Write the structure tokens for this entry.
Amino acid sequence: MIEPHAPAPPRSQEPWSAPGGPDDPARLPVRPGTGRFLVLAGVFVCAACGLVYELELVALASYLMGDSVTQASVVLSVMVFAMGIGSLAAKRLRRLAAAGFGAVEAALALVGGCSAMALYAVFAWTGDWGGMWANGPRCLLVAFSLAVGLLIGAEVPLLMELIQRIRRQDAGGAVADLSAADYVGALVGGLAFPFLLLPCLGQLTGALLTGAVNTVVGGALVLGLFRQDLTRRARWLLLIGNALVLAVLASATVLVDDFERAARQAMYGGDVRVAIQTGVKEVVLAGGTGGRPLDIYFDGRLRVSGRDEVRFHEALVHPAMTGPHARVLILGGGDGLAVREVLRHTGVDRVDVVELDAEVVRLARTDPALSALNEHAFGDPRVQVTTADAFGWLRGATPAAYDVVVSDLPDPGITASTKLYSQEFYGLVRRVLAPGGRLVVHAGPVASDRRVFWTVEATVRAAGLRTAPYGTGGRYAGPAAGPGRTPSERARAPHDWGFVLAGRTNPRPRLDPDGPRPSVLTQASLAAGERAARRTRIAGLPASTLVHPRY
């Protein structure tokens, strides 16, 4: 005889959810169709916020630590991995979908919104501590990528549970609806970051505002639409939690300008005069008054040091000016310092400057310290400035138009500059050189980074030009992430500059006997720099191309 089953005991009630099982329909204050629309709208906004957090971490890490390819790879790979872990962990919150989603969004808004400020603070204030703090920004970057990924990954399973509680449908249809809202939101967030948030608000304020939007939308969705699924205790805890997150984000937004000034002083010293975010990069001018030398930083990297910029620019320009030099093209050089050296030579009829960042040229014209340092070079009527990408501009330039081309561009080790040190780029330069014309390239340090230096030289040769490498000593203004972060890093920092002089015929680094006398560079030091560079040669290096960069 088969005995009848006894009824199952009632399930114990979760402390965060109101009576009702996970399979029971949600008790909504609106019609089910409206409820589904509101959930999908929330998915859209949360997806946009999530992608902004990812892009903000990539952008700030690239600015602070350089090498955007590496930073993007680290952030995205760690975040995608963490999203999978977060999705698995969210399965345990199925019975508490409404409360769980509200808590996840509040935590995501706080972590994502404050991530940029925290990363910048660690970089600015602990960079010179040394020891375990030397890798502090990188460790924090991984930690934030992991945390944001875990929280983003937990969203979809919880949202899937919530939307199914509104109206049951097949799993494929529910996933399609959620995915569509998620992907469209990611598109909007991905476009809003570079075209709206970054130029209008900056990285820090943009991240904080995104966190505030995330908090409001997540809290409103749960407390407004699914409030009947929550106990009174859960509603109060979520309300207080979201209010605290908004208070933290609002306070940080109010203090963000003071925070940025303090962080810049910690990084660059107390004599920062100008700090602007152009459409291309951050430009900081420090010193230049009261007898202090002017230092120029681009995206946290020391680009020009007033202590010995003359040594660099004389070595860059004067050897290339030996020979015909009526028509000169300068690629980069928006600070006007290379233009200053060119104009010291007689017989110069025209100088064309192709600079990507118009704000740098404006500072070179108007900043008292910088314009004095470049001797008001941009006020000379022979100088014509074009705001353009050097690569694109060369593609439309007149062939055989210039006697001298000076490549005064950021270092090849910086990802954004890689195409400006490619074989294709030097092929375009070769096309605009007149017969007997010369090209000179700043190729990074010789002694400490021989492989990069000789890769530049091999790439110039691969473009059909003959080369003569040389170097000179000085305080290196290269791609270190920040102004000399630790004593050990300063000790290891290169103290030389390397150059490659090139032409269709064998060039020879020498000074024009009829030209102006440089204040530092001599024929003897130039010859010594050529001999020292040749002793470091690495043979057999392949050229760097657009599709296979070697730097």
